[in-house]
């Protein structure tokens, strides 16, 4: 990255924001509040119609572990559809050419699919868990619990700061809104609906936001070729080819943007896949979503979501960076007659400038909306993850072990508000010391990767010892930071924000941070071996009672069947279906890594092939088809998969309206399957026995 950007000045000329400040506040504040109120309404509706009571901990934190495949896949795509996924992929595409967006996407999909292995293993071994840290505490004790709590919180904080820094810079560039105002206002609406709705509100907003983003991205995938300056894929190829001749890329084959043989590209690919393994495995929100999914939805949800996600950074990054490179010297480009400055590139403004180039103010509005949708959706997952750590792993573990439902929910609420404010303040601090999207994108792996192998071993390998689990990630982080800072000093003569954000120090530091814990863990375990009994996970009661009150008879029976399938069969050998899903997940993880990271890109890197017009056109055609398939997956599959519950809600709403005058009660089913006396929400009086029920 530095070889290209070092030649650029930070011109005092700035691009006039295409939209007014009022537009920024309308989207960030008004639209945020509208979405929050809609989600609150939906949450209340689900409670009234199908008994999803978010005042109960199991519903608030794990959605009663019954989320379907379609909604899980949509939530998985949304979890990685950060604002930085789109902004960052276009950034590395602008810097390295076509290799950049590909390596960005290849650095995400394999570990998303791999997470299905961890998710289904947790379902099989500890089905009542709420957070990753509960697993660590039960296996290794409180000292390990505290270490991993710190690692997870660092991971969540760095991830959120990365999102907010990129999103705030884009919103400021599009509207002129003060960047600090954007930084503090973005989490407000998120905190509102997360506060009320919990994890199910996160799933629902994931779906709504991701569907909206995909519609806008698919619009850009067509709109880019309708402007006369681009016209067609073959003409775009000529524009990018000419850009490579004007501004050859150091480290690329013949300086071309149209080759996978890119030193900068493959270095970023190594850095990105290591960093993202850390982000996924140490992100408690991914574990929460796998805990919330029904047993049969974990593996297909993560596999479908991971593969569908690939198209977004790959195609959008390729298209947007190609248009910007090709039209940067054209009068329709926002910065004409100058090129983008290093600050603009590092702030992630390649995508916004692409949108302004192809669609004017309408494009700016589209980027404003997708940036807002992406950052708030992923913020919701991060906030609920941190609130779960505060409520379960701090409050329930160390302050009040016998905490009741209402206590846990109250501390979840405290956690939501606290982390929203703290993350905004931390992001503001980073901004004022000169840290931006580009810096965090390259260096975050140094801090997120030390827990990759120790955490994976904690779930999959019974022999890792307590000492290895505690010491190896701490030594790994120390090793990574030392290599990162030492490389910056050795290569550039100083340790500054600028030198620590360079590619090579970040690559060396991230690889050291990710892989050094592997030998540390193996060596320590060799000298201090243990043999953990997986059955010990089931000796501790973690789940709260699932309340069946106010659930209609049919829905209660369905919920009870789910719970029986998931919780009653505690013997591992009595769950062959989960073992089978584990084998399927492992095969898909290997296939995805080999396909996306080895068999596809590495032969192209070794061949030194430079795209011709036909190959470049095919590259884009495959990308746009894949993108539209992703739209179908995240937009329509959840509706089809959840049609039964949707119809139940619809029938309950209609029945409620028809009987609103008499205000009848709903019949509940207790855990034994028999009818029980319930209390009407409207009258708060006990309804009669089965003979007093109103007739249908």
UniProtKB/TrEMBL annotation:
Q: Which GO terms describe its molecular function?
A: urea transmembrane transporter activity
Membrane-traversing stretches: 22-42, 63-82, 102-120, 146-171, 177-196, 208-227, 266-287, 299-327, 364-390, 411-433, 439-461, 473-495, 507-528, 584-602, 614-637
- Where does it localize? Membrane
Which stretches does UniProt call biased (Polar residues)? 669-687
Read off the Pfam families from this record.
SSF
Query: GO cellular-component terms in the record?
Result: plasma membrane
| Membrane topology qualifier | Multi-pass membrane protein
Keyword list, A-Z: Membrane, Transmembrane, Transmembrane helix
The UniProt annotation puts the region (Disordered) at: 656-696
Xref: Gene3D superfamilies:
Sodium/glucose cotransporter
Would you identify the family this protein belongs to, as annotated?
Belongs to the sodium:solute symporter (SSF) (TC 2.A.21) family.
Xref: PANTHER family: ACTIVE TRANSPORTER, PUTATIVE (AFU_ORTHOLOGUE AFUA_1G17570)-RELATED, PTHR46154
In its UniProt entry, what is this protein called?
A: Urea active transporter
């Amino acid at each position: 990255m530095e070889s290209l950007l070092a030649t650029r000045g930070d011109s005092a000329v700035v691009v006039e924001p295409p939209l007014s400040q009022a537009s920024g506040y309308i989207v960030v504040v008004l639209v945020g509040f509208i979405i929050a109120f809609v989600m609150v309404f939906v949450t209340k509706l689900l409670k009234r119609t199908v008994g999803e009571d978010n005042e109960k901990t199991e519903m608030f934190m794990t959605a009663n572990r019954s989320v379907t495949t379609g909604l899980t896949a949509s939530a998985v795509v949304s979890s990685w559809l950060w604002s930085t996924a789109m902004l960052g992929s276009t950034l590395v595409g602008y810097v390295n050419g076509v290799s950049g967006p590909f390596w960005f996407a290849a650095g995400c999909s394999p570990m998303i699919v791999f997470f299905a292995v961890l998710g289904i293993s947790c379902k099989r071994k500890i089905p009542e868990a709420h957070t990753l840290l509960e697993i660590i505490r039960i296996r290794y004790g409180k000292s390990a619990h505290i270490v991993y709590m710190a690692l997870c919180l660092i991971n969540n904080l760095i991830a959120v700061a990365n999102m907010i820094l990129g999103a705030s810079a884009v919103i400021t560039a599009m509207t002129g809104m003060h960047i600090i105002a954007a930084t503090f206002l973005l989490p407000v609406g998120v905190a509102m609906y997360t506060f009320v709705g919990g994890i199910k509100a996160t799933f629902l907003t994931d779906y709504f936001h991701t569907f909206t983003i995909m519609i806008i991205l698919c619009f850009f995938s067509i709109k880019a070729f309708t402007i006369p300056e681009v016209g067609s894929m073959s003409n775009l190829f000529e524009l990018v080819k000419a850009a490579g001749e004007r501004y050859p890329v150091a480290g690329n084959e013949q300086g071309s943007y149209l080759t996978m043989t890119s030193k900068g590209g493959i270095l970023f690919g190594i850095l990105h896949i290591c960093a993202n393994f850390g982000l996924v495995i140490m992100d408690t929100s991914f574990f929460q979503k796998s805990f919330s999914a029904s047993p049969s939805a974990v593996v297909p949800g993560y596999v479908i979501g991971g593969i569908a996600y690939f198209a977004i950074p790959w195609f959008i990054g390729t298209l947007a960076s190609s248009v910007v490179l090709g039209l940067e010297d054209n009068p329709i480009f926002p910065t004409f007659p100058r090129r983008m400055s290093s600050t603009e590139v590092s702030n992630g403004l390649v995508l916004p400038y692409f949108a302004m180039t192809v669609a004017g103010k309408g494009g700016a509005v589209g980027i404003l909306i997708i940036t807002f949708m992406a950052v708030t959706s992923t913020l919701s997952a991060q906030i609920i993850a941190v609130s779960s750590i505060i409520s379960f792993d701090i409050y329930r573990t160390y302050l009040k072990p016998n905490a009741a439902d209402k206590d846990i929910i109250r501390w979840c609420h405290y956690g939501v508000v606290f982390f929203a404010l703290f993350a905004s303040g931390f992001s503001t601090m980073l901004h004022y010391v000169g840290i931006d999207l580009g810096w965090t994108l390259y260096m975050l792996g140094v801090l997120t990767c030390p827990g990759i192998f120790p955490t994976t071993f904690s779930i999959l390998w019974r022999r890792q010892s307590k000492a290895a689990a505690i010491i190896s990630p701490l030594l790994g982080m120390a090793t990574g930071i030392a290599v990162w800072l030492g490389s910056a000093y050795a290569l550039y003569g100083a340790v500054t924000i600028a030198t620590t954000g360079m590619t090579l120090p970040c690559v060396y530091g991230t690889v050291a941070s990710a892989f050094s814990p592997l030998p540390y863990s193996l060596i320590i375990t060799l000298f201090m071996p243990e043999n953990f009994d997986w059955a010990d996970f089931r000796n501790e009661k973690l789940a709260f009672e699932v309340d069946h009150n106010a659930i209609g008879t049919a829905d209660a029976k369905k919920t009870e069947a789910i719970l029986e399938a998931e919780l009653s069969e505690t013997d591992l050998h009595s769950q062959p279906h989960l073992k089978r899903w584990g084998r399927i997940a492992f095969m898909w993880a290997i296939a995805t890594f080999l396909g996306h990271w080895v068999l596809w890109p590495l032969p192209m890197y070794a061949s030194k092939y430079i795209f011709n017009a036909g190959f470049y056109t095919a590259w884009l055609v495959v990308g746009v088809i894949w993108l539209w398939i992703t739209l179908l997956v995240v937009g329509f599959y959840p509706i089809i998969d959840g049609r039964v519950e949707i119809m139940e809600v619809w029938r309950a709403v209609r029945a409620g309206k028809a009987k609103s005058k008499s205000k009848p009660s709903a019949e509940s089913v207790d855990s034994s399957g028999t009818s029980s006396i319930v209390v009407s929400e409207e009258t708060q009086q006990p309804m009669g026995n089965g003979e007093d029920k109103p007739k249908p």
